[in-house]
């Protein structure tokens, strides 16, 4: 579930550059990371090598892009050679670090930073509605009611919570993700079935960060 969300978030950012990836290994190709940083910062890394012919070229481009990203965001992301070998953990760590420092660390709401701000935002915007209290990023969102409640709070009349039933999980999730995408242009990073089988905190945080950007 988390891997799909990471790739989906990257592709959402890369859409402005008419570039996309099919799997996370592309972060090590020496091209994708440059385009991703350009899309996020609206600035090109220096000394980009093109065309790429060696592993050293890939590593040099990766280092140039990450160094620029670090300097602009205050991050301290390291460049591991394991990224070039397709090491899944190294690739996923890199993707999450970029997401966190570009889209989550910058959120501040109700006196709280980053993920705590997202939770506070979700709580404040649903506390007046007839759903269970949101306490976390996994169990509170698993039924789909919390997602629907957020949409109802931001756009009253779009979802009628009294017509929904908490046990109809798939219906609730399909409705929430469909409306978020069609009305607010939030990309579909999560499949409803994923929430039944393997709900993941990081994935939900990433998705909610995009909702926050579109809803607020």
Give descriptors for this structure.
elongated; mainly alpha; two-stranded antiparallel sheet
Task: Record the SSE blueprint.
Blueprint: H1 2-14, H2 32-41, H3 55-73, H4 88-104, E1 108-109, E2 112-113, H5 114-126, H6 145-154, H7 169-184, H8 192-197, H9 201-215
Antiparallel strand pairs: 1-2
Question: Mind explaining what this structure looks like?
Answer:
This protein has 216 residues and is an all-alpha fold. The chain folds into two domains: 103 residues, Orthogonal Bundle (Actin-binding Protein, T-fimbrin, domain 1), CATH 1.10.418.10; 108 residues, Calponin-like domain (Actin-binding Protein, T-fimbrin, domain 1), CATH 1.10.418. The chain contains nine helices and two strands. The protein has a two-stranded antiparallel sheet with strand order 1-2. Helix 1 crosses helix 4 and helix 1 packs parallel to helix 9. The longest helix is centred in the first third of the chain and has 19 residues. It is elongated. Pfam families: CH. It comes from Arcella intermedia. InterPro entries: CH_dom, CH_dom_sf, F-actin_Monoox_Mical. This is Calponin-homology (CH) domain-containing protein.
């Amino acid at each position: 579930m988390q891997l799909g969300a990471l790739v989906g978030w990257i592709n959402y950012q890369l859409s402005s550059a008419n570039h996309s990836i099919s799997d996370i290994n592309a972060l090590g190709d020496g091209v994708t990371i440059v385009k991703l940083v350009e899309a996020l910062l609206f600035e090109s890394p220096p000394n980009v090598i093109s065309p790429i012919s060696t592993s050293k070229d890939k590593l040099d481009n990766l280092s140039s892009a990450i160094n620029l990203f670090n300097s602009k965001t205050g991050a301290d992301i390291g460049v591991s050679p394991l990224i070039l070998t397709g090491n899944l953990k190294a690739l996923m760590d890199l993707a999450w670090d970029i997401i966190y420092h570009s889209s989550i660390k910058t959120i501040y709401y109700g006196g709280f930073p980053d993920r705590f701000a997202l939770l506070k935002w979700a709580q404040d915007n649903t506390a007046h509605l007839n759903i269970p209290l949101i306490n976390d990023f996994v169990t509170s969102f698993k039924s789909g009611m919390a997602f629907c409640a957020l949409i109802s709070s931001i756009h009253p009349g779009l979802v009628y919570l009294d017509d929904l039933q908490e046990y109809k999980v798939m219906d609730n999730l399909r409705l929430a993700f469909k409306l978020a995408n069609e009305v607010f242009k939030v990309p579909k990073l999560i499949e409803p079935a994923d929430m039944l089988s393997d709900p993941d905190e990081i994935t939900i945080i990433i998705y909610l960060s995009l909702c926050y950007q579109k809803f607020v």
